[in-house]
Amino acid sequence: MVRIVPLYWFMISIAMLLWASGNFSLPYWMIELNSEPNLYNLAMHFSMLSYLDYRVANSVLGVEWTIPIEVFWYVCLPSALWFALTIFRTVTLMFFMLIITAALSYLSKEMLGTSLPIQWSPIAHGHLFMLGALAFHLRGRFKSYKGKTSNKWIAAAVCLFTIALLFDFNGRSAILAISTAIMIVWLTPIRASWVTRPLTTPPMLFVGSISYSMYLVHMFVIHILHDLGWLPDAGHIRFILIFGVTVLLSTLTYLLIEKPTNQYGRKLVKSL
Known about the structure:
It is a single chain. The chain is mainly alpha-helical. It has helices at 5-21, 28-32, 39-46, 54-57, 66-83, 87-112, 116-119, 126-141, 149-166, 172-186, 193-199, 202-209, 211-228, 235-271. Helix 5 packs across helix 8 (126-141) and helix 6 runs antiparallel to helix 8 (126-141).
């Protein structure tokens, strides 16, 4: 919580102040779902309960709907993992959550005309946390495996991951999740240094350090640059500008907010 909440609250507060000031246009989802930058919206986000009202769940930053879901599962995951002590139980729970999600999404679409109340709720993503538990079980099982099968799995996972990044199609999130789980199971420096070496270079480690800041900041940056009329039409120049500003702001938020609060969190844990 100490790692996640401070930056989340900071970005929500800054964005809410800007949207309420009237100097910038409102974000897409705020307009689409007829929500407002008011105290109710702020309170729902600060309480980490914004998923209870889909109209505000993703209305401020355009990506923040995932954070309360993450916090929800941090609270509830221990109980789920107590049940998922074996691979069979983990898979059973994962498919149960998928079935519940499909049923609730259907009902939501029939009753409300949209499945967003379920898509932006914790229940719709429980199977992904169980996929993480499954990867944990399998990694332990195949830790000492020395056959060539591991290289095939790793190569397939990298190919799937690359395809999901480069092409827009339904199910991209599922492909990214599955390919990541496969790499968690099989990937080690000994088995595939061609993957681990590039991912552990100083620039990649730096981007990894500021990745949470980048996640919360990037849509905010795009919106502000667009409103200021500073976004060029050329795709590559546009990307470079957005990426550069995002990295700059993310570095600042990491140094000023994330790093100090992370250090405090580590001290807090050690003192318990």
